[in-house]
C-alpha cells in the first residue's frame, strides 16, 4: 500500500525556514577548532554607498566649492549587466560619447567574477539557460560573441560545446548519500517520487497554455507573456498557497519548489507570487521529454558574459565613482548635472550631461533623483551571501561523483558549484567551490542588520557546519574562504509586483532620462537586464537622431 505523503503546513514550512536561517547566521560558536583557513569579507562598499542617503538631505555644494568636469553627452549610471548593455549597444550603433559610472572596483554587478591562482570563479550569477525563441536579443548577442555557432536542421541554435555544462550536471545529498538531479524524491515509486511525476505533468499543461490574447502564458522577456486576466491574477497569490491549493502535499516537493524560487528570485515560496513561481518552470524551452535543456556556464559564471559586454567599451567605464545626485542644470550647455564622489581622491565633482541612462536599482531613486512621489517605495530586495572556498580537492562523498551543482536537502544554503567543472585539463584536483545563500524570508531588514554584524569567523563556521552534513572531512580540504555579502542583491517578485502596475510606472522615462535596471522586470536575470539596457540605448539613439 502506498504511504500517504506527509502534508506540510505553512506554519511548519516557515518554522523550518526560520531554523535554517538562524542556523546559518547564528554564529555557531561551539565550532571553535579550525585549522589554518584564511579569508576575508568582501562586497559592495556600503560605507561609501550610504553617502547617497546623507547627501539626499542636503543641497548641492555651491558653485564656488565644486569642481566641474568636462561635459559628457550621455552618462550611464551603474555598470551591472543593464548598464553595460546600454553602453554595448550605444557603441555598436556607432555612438561613443558616453561614460559609465560605477561605485565598485569592477563592473558587472551581481554577475561579477574573481580569480585566484587556481582559476576564475563567479561572485554571483553563474549560468544562463538556453534562451527561447522570444529572447531574440539574447540569441543575437550569443551569436555575436560566438556562443551560438550555428543552427541545426530544425533551425534551432547550436552552441559551442565548451560552454554547455558538462555531465554530471547536478546532484543532491538526500537520505545520507548523493543522488542524481536536484529533486529529493528517491525512486519513482516512493510517495515523493510519485508526487514529482504528478507535478511535472501539471507543469506541462501550463507550459503549453496560450492566453486569450494568443500569447504564451509565460515568456522571457517577461513583458511578452500573455496578458490574459485569468493568468495574471495568479500574481496576487503567494506561490506556497497556490501549490497547496492544487493538492500537492509532500515535503520533498515543497522543499524543491522553495529551493527553486530562492535560487532564481532570492525569496521563499511564501514571499513570491504564484505567477512568478510558474514562470520559473514554464518560461524557458525544454526538450521533447519536458526536461530542462543543458545550461550554459563558464568557470567565472556570468562574468564571462559581462566581459563580452565590457571589453568593447572598457575605456568608457569609470569605477570607484559614487553617483550622489542628479539635478537639472541651470546652464544652457547641458540638461543635467551629476554630482559624483571619487572613492580614491575623496573629492566631489559635477559632470554636466545631456542624457542619462539610470541603471542603478530603483530603491536609490529617491536619494539620487530626489523623487518624492513614492513610486519606488514598497520594493523588496533579497539579501544574499556568496562564498568562494579554495580547496585542495573537490569533495566527493557517498553516492554519485561530484557534479557542477551540488545541493544539500533541507540546507539553508543553495549548495555550491565547482568552478573547475568546465576545465578541459585532466587530473586537476584543486578547485574553487562557490557557495550560495539567499535569505528568503520576509523580514529582509533584520537579515541585513545581522549580515552587518556577522564576522568572517562566524560566517566560516556556519558554512562549515552546513557542508559537513555531506562532507565530514571538508574542513581539512579548505585553504581559504572569501565571502561577499549583498544587502540588496536582487529585486524580489513579491505578490502583486509583476502585474500590479508598479513596474510599468517605474519604467516611464523622464525627458532625456531613461531607466534600465533589471528590477523594472521584477526579476534579476541576465536576459531581462540585457533587454532593459538595449531599450534605454535605443531611446538615447532616438534622441540623438542616430
Automatic annotation (TrEMBL):
Q: Does the keyword Cytoplasm apply?
A: no
Give the UniProt keywords, A-Z: Membrane, Transmembrane, Transmembrane helix
UniProt-recorded Gene Ontology molecular function terms: oxidoreductase activity
* InterPro entries (UniProt xref): FAD/NAD-bd_sf, Zeta_carotene_desat/Oxidored
Cross-referenced Pfam families, in alphabetical order? NAD_binding_8
The stretch of residues making up the signal peptide is none
- What is this protein identified as? Amino oxidase
The record lists the organism as Leptospira stimsonii
Amino acid at each position: 500500500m502506498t504511504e500517504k505523503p506527509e502534508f506540510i503546513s505553512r506554519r511548519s514550512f516557515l518554522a523550518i525556514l526560520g531554523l535554517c536561517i538562524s542556523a546559518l547566521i547564528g554564529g555557531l560558536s561551539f565550532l571553535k577548532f579550525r585549522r589554518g583557513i584564511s579569508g576575508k569579507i568582501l562586497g559592495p562598499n556600503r560605507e561609501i554607498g550610504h553617502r547617497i542617503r546623507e547627501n539626499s538631505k542636503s543641497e548641492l555644494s555651491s558653485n564656488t566649492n565644486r569642481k566641474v568636469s568636462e561635459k559628457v553627452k550621455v552618462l550611464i549610471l551603474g555598470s551591472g549587466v543593464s548598464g553595460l548593455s546600454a553602453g554595448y549597444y550605444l557603441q555598436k550603433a556607432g555612438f561613443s560619447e558616453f561614460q559609465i559610472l560605477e561605485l565598485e572596483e569592477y563592473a558587472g554587478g551581481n554577475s561579477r567574477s574573481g580569480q585566484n591562482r587556481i582559476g576564475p570563479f563567479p561572485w554571483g550569477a553563474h549560468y544562463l539557460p538556453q534562451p527561447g525563441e522570444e529572447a531574440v536579443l539574447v540569441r543575437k548577442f550569443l551569436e555575436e560573441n560566438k556562443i551560438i555557432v550555428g543552427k541545426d536542421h530544425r533551425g534551432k541554435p547550436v552552441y559551442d560545446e565548451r560552454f554547455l555544462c558538462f555531465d554530471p550536471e547536478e546532484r543532491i545529498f538526500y537520505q545520507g548519500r548523493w543522488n542524481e538531479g536536484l529533486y529529493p524524491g528517491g525512486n519513482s515509486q516512493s510517495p515523493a517520487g510519485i508526487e514529482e511525476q504528478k507535478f511535472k505533468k501539471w507543469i506541462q499543461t501550463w507550459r503549453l497554455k496560450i492566453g486569450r490574447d494568443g500569447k504564451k502564458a509565460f515568456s522571457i522577456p517577461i513583458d511578452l507573456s500573455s496578458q490574459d486576466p485569468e493568468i495574471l491574477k495568479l500574481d496576487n497569490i503567494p506561490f506556497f498557497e497556490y501549490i497547496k491549493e492544487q493538492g500537492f502535499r509532500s515535503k520533498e516537493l515543497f522543499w524543491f519548489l522553495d529551493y527553486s524560487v530562492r535560487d532564481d528570485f532570492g525569496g521563499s515560496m511564501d514571499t513570491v507570487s504564484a505567477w512568478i513561481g510558474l514562470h520559473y518552470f514554464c518560461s524557458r524551452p525544454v526538450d521533447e521529454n519536458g526536461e530542462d535543456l543543458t545550461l550554459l556556464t563558464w568557470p567565472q559564471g556570468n562574468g564571462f558574459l559581462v566581459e563580452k559586454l565590457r571589453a568593447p567599451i572598457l575605456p568608457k567605464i569609470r569605477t570607484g565613482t559614487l553617483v550622489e545626485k542628479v539635478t537639472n542644470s541651470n546652464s544652457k550647455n547641458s540638461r543635467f548635472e551629476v554630482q559624483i564622489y571619487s572613492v580614491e581622491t575623496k573629492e566631489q565633482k559635477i559632470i554636466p550631461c545631456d542624457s542619462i541612462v539610470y541603471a542603478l536599482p530603483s530603491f536609490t531613486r529617491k536619494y539620487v533623483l530626489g523623487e518624492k512621489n513614492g513610486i519606488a517605495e514598497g520594493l523588496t530586495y533579497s539579501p544574499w551571501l556568496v562564498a568562494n572556498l579554495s580547496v585542495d580537492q573537490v569533495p566527493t562523498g557517498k553516492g554519485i561523483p561530484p557534479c557542477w551543482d551540488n545541493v544539500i536537502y533541507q540546507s539553508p544554503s543553495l549548495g555550491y558549484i565547482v568552478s573547475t567543472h568546465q576545465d578541459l585539463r585532466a587530473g586537476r584536483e584543486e578547485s574553487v567551490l562557490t557557495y550560495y545563500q539567499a535569505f528568503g524570508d520576509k523580514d529582509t531588514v533584520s537579515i541585513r542588520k545581522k549580515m552587518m554584524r556577522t564576522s568572517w569567523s562566524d560566517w566560516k563556521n556556519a558554512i562549515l557546519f552546513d557542508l559537513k552534513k555531506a562532507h565530514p572531512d571538508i574542513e581539512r580540504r579548505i585553504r581559504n574562504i572569501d565571502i561577499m555579502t549583498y544587502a540588496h542583491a536582487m529585486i524580489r517578485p513579491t505578490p502583486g509586483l509583476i502585474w500590479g502596475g508598479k513596474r510599468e510606472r517605474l519604467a516611464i522615462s523622464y525627458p532625456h532620462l531613461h531607466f534600465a535596471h533589471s528590477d523594472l522586470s521584477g526579476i534579476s536575470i541576465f536576459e531581462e537586464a540585457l533587454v532593459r539596457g538595449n531599450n534605454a540605448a535605443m531611446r538615447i539613439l532616438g534622441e540623438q537622431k542616430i
